[in-house]
Give the backbone structure.
Amino acid sequence: MLIDYHLHTVYSHHAVGTIDDYLRRAKELGIQEVCFTEHISRQYLSEELKRQLPYTWMREEELELYLRDVKDAGERTSLNVRVGLETDYFAGFEQELGRFLASLPVDYVLGVVHLLPMYGFRYVMDVKDEPVRFLLTYFDYVRKAVESGLFDSMAHINLGWQAVPWPEGADGQLVEDALSAVVASARKQDMCLEVNTRAFNFEGCGTREAYERFLRLIADYGVPITLGSDAHNPKEVGRNYPEALRTLAYYGIKEAAAFVQRQRHMVPLAAVVVR
Ligand SMILES: [Zn+2]
Ligand SMILES: [Zn+2]
């Protein structure tokens, strides 16, 4: 089965394409199930914190419309259509976020660390710092997000090692131990980690070696994955799937998680894909 659990639409204000445009493309590619994961609006945060964040993304008043639009689109197509949110983790707002998420009719909540408070809420990929210090800080914050238990999966952890080069020698091992602690916590929480296929573009300092290190840890700890393209344009649905699926198969990862009303079930991944 083919699924894509990370899609953005015009609701992001930095992506193009309507929900129907994405569904059309998914169908062309033979993808049977999709989940839209619009950036959550941040009405659960304090005014003070909101003022410090560099991006607005989906607006507060659009959330209800988005949820309804996805639901309605699902009724017009033969595809399985799920509704989700890509939700920034901010330490200190766990209770507020938990209450907010519990009030929403969503299938899937994808947690994410895009903005780090200790770096003035700068976007991860734009932080300039010494690589070891940066990666330990980033992985530590991601681990806290995992331990919050608020999310079904954590999105694109690869942003960390795309922002700075993976250190050599003993420092490299230190960083790998920190990544390993994130994967171990996911195992303990019984939650997923995302294989975001945009990672196979190897942007910034990203390398195949670093990504395979991550996949090896996932396989070793037996952490379930979610799979998504992070499409911001209908053309990006299922991006890099042939390469990603081949690599997953190499590491013995044969299933991905799917969600209905935040209940997880595993689906077998297709071996060959995408026309
Ligand atoms: Zn993201
Ligand atoms: Zn995204």
The CA atoms of residues 86 and 223 lie 20 Å apart. The chain has a mean pLDDT of 95. The radius of gyration is 18 Å.
